[in-house]
């Protein structure tokens, strides 16, 4: 299972011109007191893990099969029964949603099925279906996910979403079983004290053996992470690609990216290790940043890898280090991008199309590149003076 979860309290607020005007942080405009009892419910994961769906997925409306090719505009749709989605789009259907309002009440009676197959998710898109969603307003209660994508070749493009959820284990966007979600727009992810167990802004992991192929693409978005412990992006037990284009990220933790020899438990309450899954492997995260100004650190654990490429007038302020054991972090800069160091830093790979490295602002710190990586042969084990008084030197990170 590869799960890409935007955890618990994703509350994007988006503003676009047409039918729906999606403004305002949902946590400010929704009546949170009315949902206090719902939020107080604790997710019940203490049930037998199911590895297959025990019933057909049900929905108020279902579009199934490649002959379904339609678009649904300006509608309000709802579901109130347990284990019932508002909408299922499956089996290769091509259904676009524009300016729709989706309202979901009702519980999932099996949280494993909810997590693995999107049982009870408000909008559940599955099995090679492709959907373009524009300006959608999804409110869910009783722990239902907002938008769920499942299965290889399932691709959900989201441009403008206003998502609110209450109840146990409610996720904003959730991709599982290799599903892909591509979100565009201004998303404000605000941590809410109503929810426990928020682990990161975006969590990309595999919960069996390590898979590759997960990808995350965020553009023109603002992500605010108000919890002091959580990184913006967390990768565990996967090989994954991410692109961040025109993105603003604010973290209280000061950590942008974690790659770990770990996975997230289905409760999303802690980072699990070998004792929970002895098929774990280190994570490899390949991240391309463009047109963004970012502040925060990169942290790799126990043989994990982070490749961090700054392109297209990006600037990054931060450092990179090991959380535990051996780490592999590569930083590459194009000549339009800059890196401002905030500590002495050792990277496994360092590449820069500005070969005199004038785009690294050292602040007096030392940037060490690992002599053992072939990516650094262009430096020929030279020491280079950096602006701000520090220098780029050969060395050994691990
Ligand atoms: C989204 O829909 C919910 C439920 O209908 C409503 O309460 C909320 O105001 C809507 N949000 C916006 C931004 O219109
Ligand atoms: C859905 O939107 C995409 C992108 O605009 C378009 O290529 C596709 O034809 C649309 N499909 C339907 C059924 O409207
Ligand atoms: C829906 O699920 C909730 C929580 O499990 C349960 O309390 C309620 O009785 C269920 N409703 C129906 C109609 O089965
Ligand atoms: C999608 O495929 C899975 C695996 O074959 C199946 O269990 C599930 O019921 C399918 N989803 C829908 C909505 O039919
Ligand atoms: C996800 O990808 C893995 C590896 O390619 C494959 O074995 C698995 O069947 C895929 N799962 C789904 C639900 O498509
Ligand atoms: C990293 O993974 C280990 C288990 O392998 C876990 O104990 C630790 O909490 C994780 N830390 C982070 C920040 O992911
Ligand atoms: C580190 O990885 C090794 C496997 O290489 C594993 O046995 C060990 O439990 C991991 N330790 C942590 C803290 O993740
Ligand atoms: C370092 O560069 C090598 C050679 O190009 C590459 O295989 C490896 O993935 C890179 N590692 C990191 C951490 O960027």
UniProtKB/TrEMBL annotation:
InterPro entries membership: Pectin_lyase_fold/virulence
Assigned keywords, A-Z: Signal
Domain of life of the source: Eukaryota
Signal peptide as annotated in the record: 1-19
Entry protein name: Bulb-type lectin domain-containing protein
Protein species of origin: Penicillium cataractarum
Upper taxonomic lineage: Eukaryota, Fungi, Dikarya, Ascomycota, Pezizomycotina
């Amino acid at each position: 299972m590869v799960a890409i979860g935007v955890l618990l309290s994703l509350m994007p607020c988006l503003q676009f011109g047409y039918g729906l005007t999606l403004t305002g942080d949902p946590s400010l405009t929704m009546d949170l007191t009315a949902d206090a009892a719902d939020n107080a419910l604790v997710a019940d994961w203490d049930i037998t893990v199911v590895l297959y769906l025990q019933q057909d997925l049900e929905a108020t409306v279902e579009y199934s099969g490649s002959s379904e090719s339609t678009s649904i505009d300006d509608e309000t749709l709802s579901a109130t029964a347990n284990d019932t989605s508002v909408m299922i789009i499956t089996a290769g259907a091509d259904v676009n949603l524009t300016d729709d309002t989706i309202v979901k009440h009702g519980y999932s009676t099996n949280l494993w099925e909810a997590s693995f197959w999107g049982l009870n998710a408000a909008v559940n898109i599955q099995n090679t279906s492709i959907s373009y969603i524009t300006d959608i307003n999804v409110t869910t209660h009783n722990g239902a996910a907002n938008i769920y994508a499942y299965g290889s070749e399932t691709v959900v493009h989201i441009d403008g979403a206003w998502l609110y959820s209450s109840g146990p284990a409610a996720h904003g966007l959730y991709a599982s079983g290799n599903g892909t979600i591509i979100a565009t727009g201004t998303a404000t992810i605000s941590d809410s004290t109503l929810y426990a167990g928020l682990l990161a802004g975006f969590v990309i992991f595999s919960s069996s053996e390590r898979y590759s192929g997960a990808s995350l693409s965020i553009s023109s978005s603002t992500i605010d992470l108000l919890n002091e412990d959580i990184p913006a992006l967390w990768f565990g037990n996967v090989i994954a690609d991410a692109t961040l284009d025109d993105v603003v990220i604010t973290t209280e933790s000061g950590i942008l990216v974690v790659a770990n020899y770990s996975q997230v438990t289905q409760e999303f309450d802690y980072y699990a290790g070998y004792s929970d899954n002895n098929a774990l492997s280190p994570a490899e995260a390949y991240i391309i940043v463009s047109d963004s100004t970012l502040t925060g650190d990169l942290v790799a654990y126990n043989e994990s890898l982070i490749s961090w490429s700054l392109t297209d007038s990006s600037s990054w302020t931060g450092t990179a280090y090991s959380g535990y054991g051996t780490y592999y972090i590569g930083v590459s800069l194009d000549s339009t991008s800059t890196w401002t160091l905030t500590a002495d830093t050792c990277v496994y790979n360092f590449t820069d199309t500005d070969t005199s490295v004038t785009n690294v602002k050292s602040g007096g710190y030392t940037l060490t590149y690992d002599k053992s990586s072939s990516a650094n042969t262009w430096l020929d084990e030279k020491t280079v003076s950096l602006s701000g008084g520090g220098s780029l030197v050969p060395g050994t990170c691990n």
